[in-house]
Amino acid sequence: MLVRTAALVLLAANAVYFGWSQGLLAPLGLGPDTGSEPQRLAQQIRPEALRVAQTSSAAAPAEPASTAAGPTTEPACLRAGPFDAAQADTLRQALAGADLPEGSWALDATATPTRWIVYMGKYADADALEKKRAELRALRVETAPVRPAALAPGLSLGVFTTAAGAQEHLAQLTRRGVRTARVVPETPEQAVTQLRLPHADEALRARVQPLAGKPLTPC
User: Model's pTM, two decimal places?
Assistant: First the structure.
């Protein structure tokens, strides 16, 4: 009898639990909290204030405009020359009439250094010159025609900026079997003029270059 009563109680409890879990007892205020509407709506705080923010993947922060300036050329000292006396006078007149800024140019008197050569000659004629050139070629000595008319016909065995350099070369040639060669000045020191632009920018350079007629190079 006791077992039967316990079975009936258990069966009734299962039936009540089933009804509770399935929401059959909800009208009586009994049932699990499912979180469904309308209970969830009641838990929301000012749902009308919510807004969906939309972003575009194509949008990108605006980059500041570049303010970098292009390369600039700083004024530099330039020069041209040398000019002989007649050329210097012509250039001076052209520069003075070009309405250039005051102090933008100067004509400096200078002198070209003496050039020295190891020299052989003068020879009586072209045949004698060619015979000597063949002899030197056999000794593997390079030669070149001389430029000053006062030394022609003759041969240059080397050009030097100092007499000492030419004398040293002559000594080397003598040890190789060269005879009768000597050191002479090819061109003597000459007074010339150099054009100088102390602080030339591109505008000044463009105006002066045609007047100079010779390349403007760094000082």
Answer: 0.46
Beta strands in the chain (DSSP E): 76-83, 106-112, 115-121, 144-145, 154-160, 182-187, 190-200, 217-218
- List the structure tokens of 196: 């100088």
The amino acid at residue 195 is: L
SS (H, E, C) 111-153: EECCEEEEEEECCCCHHHHHHHHHHHHHCCCCCEECCCHHHCC
Q: What is the mean pLDDT of residues 102-128?
A: 93
Class of domain 76-111+190-218: alpha beta
Strand partners, 196: 79, 106
**Collapsed DSSP state (helix, strand, coil) of residue 85:** helix
pLDDT score for 64: 47
DSSP-assigned beta bridge partners for residue 218: 78
Nearest to 157, CA basis, from 112, 124, 176: 176
Each domain of the chain, given as residue ranges in start order, spans 76-111+190-218, 115-187
